[in-house]
């Protein structure tokens, strides 16, 4: 009976003192007293737990029937805890495997990309090596699809195939050669041009192949000119190559895009009236009407500056520009009056001109254009401002 009582749910809700009281009351009613024992044994008995008391009264009752719902709850809790730990361990293992697999794939992808990049860089170096063998004028190169910048070839089979700016660049090359070599070549036609560019709207470089005519002999000379725009919608252009085609100088030009220091000075400004009055006979020279007609390249400078600074205009009309006055600033000294403009290598041109806007409207404008020539490398630069 004692064993059945201890295994019942009622006994589990009692304290140790209450259980001891129940047992003593049961034994007293049965005529049995708790056996006398020594003080230590009695204290040990009275302070024992339920499980220890249960051992004093052995029974054949199944253990699972003693505290069935608590044992089952604890067993389930232990099982759930174990399963959680096992699932967590499995998830961590799977995550670690997935991470290692991902890192492995990323490493392989980086390796492939690096290999592809090195391969493309090698092909690009070989491509531009073939391009620069002809200084950019070759038209037989096969265009690759993997380079960030290309040299595109354009044939000028019809007069309308050649843009106006390309014709002006061809004239600039002839003017540069005539100024440095003392010749008088004139543009006959443009055969083709190669344009080096990266993205639309960025500065471009033009390699123009044209046919020039010598008025003295009437002979035709194939001519090559290169122009390099340093900014978009701004007059800042370098002319590096200006030569007859068959000169044996192919592949000898340095293709460094960095402009020399003397080409990087700030743009000139329009002089004040005080400056003109003080330095009129020292560094300023007013260009007379006959000289202006003989030196058509002054208008050529104006047209180049007008087109490069008005790229957004769909079809600018150069015939609407009329030069009113030209003043030249230079630190050089030319002795002969009729040769003074041709003798100036480094000079700044202050041009007053009118622009016909149509319907009887005329806009008075001013332009400041500076020409810089390096006699050692035979390069020329034009920069200035037409927004005055």
From TrEMBL:
<dbReference type="InterPro" id="IPR006462">
    <property type="entry name" value="MS5"/>
</dbReference>
<feature type="coiled-coil region">
    <location>
        <begin position="76"/>
        <end position="126"/>
    </location>
</feature>
<dbReference type="Pfam" id="PF04776">
    <property type="entry name" value="protein_MS5"/>
</dbReference>
<protein>
    <submittedName>
        <fullName>Uncharacterized protein</fullName>
    </submittedName>
</protein>
<keyword id="KW-0175">Coiled coil</keyword>
């Amino acid at each position: 009976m004692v064993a059945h009582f201890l295994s019942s749910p009622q006994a589990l809700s009692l304290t140790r003192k209450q259980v001891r009281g129940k047992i003593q009351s049961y034994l007293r009613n049965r005529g049995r007293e708790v056996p006398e024992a020594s003080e230590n044994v009695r204290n040990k008995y009275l302070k024992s737990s339920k499980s220890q008391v249960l051992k004093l009264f052995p029974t054949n009752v199944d253990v699972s029937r003693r505290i069935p719902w608590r044992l089952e709850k604890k067993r389930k809790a232990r099982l759930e805890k174990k399963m959680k730990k096992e699932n967590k361990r499995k998830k961590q293992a799977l995550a670690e495997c997935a991470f290692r697999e991902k890192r492995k794939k990323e490493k392989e992808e980086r390796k492939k990309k690096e290999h592809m990049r090195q391969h493309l860089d090698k092909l690009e170096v070989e491509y531009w090596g073939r391009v620069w063998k002809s200084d950019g004028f070759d038209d037989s190169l096969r265009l690759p699809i993997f380079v960030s910048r290309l040299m595109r070839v354009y044939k000028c089979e019809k007069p309308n195939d050649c843009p106006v700016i390309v014709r002006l660049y061809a004239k600039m090359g002839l003017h540069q050669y005539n100024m440095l070599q003392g010749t008088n070549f004139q543009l006959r036609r443009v055969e083709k041009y190669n344009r080096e560019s990266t993205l639309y709207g960025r500065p471009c470089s033009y390699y123009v192949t044209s046919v020039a005519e010598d008025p003295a002999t009437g002979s035709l000379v194939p001519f090559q000119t290169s122009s390099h725009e340093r900014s978009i919608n701004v007059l800042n252009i370098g002319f590096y190559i200006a030569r007859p085609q068959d000169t044996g100088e192919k592949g000898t030009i340095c293709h460094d895009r960095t402009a020399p220091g003397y080409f990087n000075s700030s743009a000139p400004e329009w002089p004040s009236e005080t400056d003109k009055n003080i330095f009129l006979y020292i560094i300023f020279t007013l260009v007379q009407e006959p000289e202006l007609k003989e030196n058509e390249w002054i208008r050529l400078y104006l047209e180049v500056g007008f087109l490069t600074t008005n790229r957004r205009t769909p079809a600018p009309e150069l015939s609407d520009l009329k030069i009113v006055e030209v003043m030249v600033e230079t630190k050089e000294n030319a002795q002969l009056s009729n040769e003074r403009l041709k003798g100036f290598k480094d000079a700044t041109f202050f041009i007053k001109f009118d622009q016909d806007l149509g319907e009887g409207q005329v806009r008075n404008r001013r332009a400041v254009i500076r020409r810089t020539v390096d006699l050692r490398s035979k390069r020329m630069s034009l920069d200035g401002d037409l927004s005055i």
